Amino acid sequence: MCCLFTILALIGPRAALVYYWLFQPARWAATFDTFIWPVIGFIFAPWTTLVYILVFPNGISTGDFVLLGLALAFDVFNWVGGAYGNRRQIRTYTY
């Protein structure tokens, strides 16, 4: 069950980004001017990039900053959680 959750957490937002890029190019073009920021977001912060695509075309309001903050927290948890969960497998780690 844990592996299924990990797969969905890693692939889910990236699949949604590809969906928006392929099937809603107007939203994609309204959100990004260059191609470098979506690529960086796809690799390092997919949840934040996905939420940014959803909220940007209508303008970002106060509630949208909360959603962007939660998405950024999910990205940070994805990066930090794996290292913290596997800390005992590292021989040089001291408790």
Helix % is over 70%
Mean pLDDT: 83
How far apart lie the N and C ends?
28 Å
- Secondary-structure content class: mainly alpha
Quaternary form: single chain
Question: How many beta-strand elements?
Answer: 0
Spans of at least 5 consecutive residues with low confidence: none
Largest sheet: none
Q: Approximately how much beta-strand content do the residues carry?
A: under 5%
Alpha carbon gyration radius: 16 Å
Shape: elongated
SSE succession:
HHHHH
Helix run count: 5
- State the domain count: 1
Care to describe what's here?
By secondary structure, the chain is an all-alpha fold. The chain has one domain. It has five helices and no strands. It has helices at residues 2-23, 25-31, 36-44, 46-55, 62-85. The longest helix is centred in the last third of the chain and has 24 residues, at 62-85. It is elongated and about 50 Å long. The mean pLDDT is 83.
